Amino acid sequence: MEFTTLNNGIKMPMEGFGVFQVPDPAQCEQSVVNAIQAGYRLIDTAAAYFNEESVGAAIKKCGVPREELFITTKLWVQDAGYEEAKKAFQTSLDKLGLDYLDLYLIHQPLGDYYGAWRAMEELYKEGKVKAIGVCNFYPERLTDLCLTAKVTPAVNQVELHPFFQQENALATMKEFGVQPEAWGPLAEGKHGIFTDPMLTEIAGKYGKSVAQVVLRWNTQRGVVIIPKSIHQNRIVENLDIWDFELSKEDMDKISRMDLGHSEIVDHSSPEFVKYLHSAKVHN
Q: Which residues are annotated as a binding site for substrate?
């Protein structure tokens, strides 16, 4: 496993395990246990995934010391605000059964996220979280936050895969020293990514799967990845990407797959923003 050093000196694994869309408690818990036993040390969840308690149970059961794990969760839109964020953080901590978090992220740039950020800055300074960051902050939102906040975000988790490469977003993150992290690094299986002829050809050259090539491509761009799977063989396969390196020629071929837009979500859509505001994680 390779690591990246965040802008506050904290080391973060370059690959982790995501649990988005794994709400079934037993399935989520077992998947996380399997992932940790396979070698993953970064686990990424969120209040909006409704599985923090399952992740916490897996952490307790896995047998790996807490200090060897890097645990991330996220603040939902409903709790954007100073006081609300303080309460939501503690709720997540309690559900996970932890004394501290390694990384706490604002899930969406909506609502009073500046109030939430002030609360997160305080939690960070109190040592309750080792690093704070954001998700889905496009370049203009990230720039504004970086120029306004006392603590620069350590991480920005955004959609990054061959069909939506976001080079402009990566350039902005590099400018401010923010670590990019990819959600949906396998494009949620869209566009026939696993059977794409060019990716299949590249994978054959290295004796790897298409998924392994796509994941490796992102890490070679300096992007942290958090692939998700509930299947043990895929969990193991997705982690087996650290014994090869894509050539510049193959990196360039993949770079030409970029569509320049997301086909998973449209954060600029008023209807999508309304939906995010309407989604509640508690009463």
A: 107
Catalytic residue, from 49, 104, 113, 124: name it.
Answer: 49
What share of residues in the chain are helix, strand, coil (percent, to 5)? 50, 15, 35
Ramachandran region, residue 101 (left: φ > 0; alpha: ψ -120 to 50; beta: rest): beta
Question: Any catalytic annotation for residue 49?
Answer: yes
For residue 248, give the CATH number of its domain.
Answer: 3.20.20.100
pTM above 0.90, yes or no: yes
> Residue 152: inside a domain, yes or no?
yes
Categorize the per-residue pLDDT at 52 as very low, low, confident or very high, splitting at 50, 70 and 90: very high
pLDDT at residue 144, rounded to an integer? 98
Is residue 92 a part of any domain in this protein?
A: yes
Residue 23: band (very low, low, confident or very high) from pLDDT cuts 50, 70, 90 = confident
Domain that holds residue 13: 3-278
Tell me how many domains the chain contains: 1
Residue 283 lies in a domain: no
Kindly state whether residue 227 falls inside one of the protein's structural domains.
yes
With 0-12 / 13-18 / 19 or more C-beta atoms within 10 angstroms meaning exposed / middle / buried, residue 223 is buried
